[in-house]
Structure formats: structure tokens, C-alpha cells
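Justification of resources, computational component.

The compute hours requested in this renewal are based largely on the per-chain cost of generating structure records like the one below. Each record pairs the submitted sequence with a full C-alpha cell output. That output is archived, and it is also reused by downstream analysis tasks.
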Amino acid sequence: MIVKVIKYLVALVALLAVLLIALRNFSEGETRYECKGTITHDGTTEPILAYVKFTEYRLMLSWSGESYGNLHLEFPNRGVEYFSNIRKVGDQLQIMGYDGRMKGNFSTLSGALFLKTNLGLIEGRCVRIEKL
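The structure output for this chain reads:
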């Protein structure tokens, strides 16, 4: 009787381990981009280099909320911004603010980025540099 219970417990632990590994490996995908363009703030436009890290929530995490993923935007030597409410419309990612208003968009097809940030309005083109 005890041997049977131990077998069931071992099988249950093994099943949970497999499920956790599957959830970890298949629940998110990450793509990184290098973006070159311009930033406009207070009427002044200047060139800018930025990096985008887009984390896509896949099937296993899609039930947890309305967001399609999150987006980290890094401006070297200037700052970082984080957007947690992303909607997908075709090949376009609509980047929403905390208030639910659209802050901008990013095209995964053309790499076009248009986004209102705390530093100013960013317009540019992004090239994928890494996909995990």
C-alpha cells in the first residue's frame, strides 16, 4: 500500500516538473530590436538610438490578461521606459499607457516605431537583432 502511494507521488511530482518546464519554455518569447530615428521634445528634433525588448505572451499566459506582451524601451545614457499593455492588430503592436490611451505603435513587419515617451516623441525604424 505504501509503495503504491509513493509511486503515485513520484509520478505526480514528475508530471508537475514537466508542466513547469513547459510553462517556462513556451509561455513567453522575447525579441530585441535596435532602433534609429528621431526624438522630438519642446520643438527640437534630434537623432536618437534606442533598443526595444518585446516580450510576447504566448498561449499559456494569454489567459492571464488582455495584454499581448510588454515592451522595454532603452535609450542608452538617457533612460528606460516600460509598457505593460500591448495589443496586437495584425502585424502592428499598439502600445497603450497605464490610462488605457494609445501611446504609439510598432510594426513587426516594417520595423516602424512611433511612440510618445517621457523623453519626447520617437519616430524611427527598428531592425531585429536577437530573438529568444
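The CA atoms of residues 31 and 85 lie 17 Å apart. The chain has a mean pLDDT of 86.
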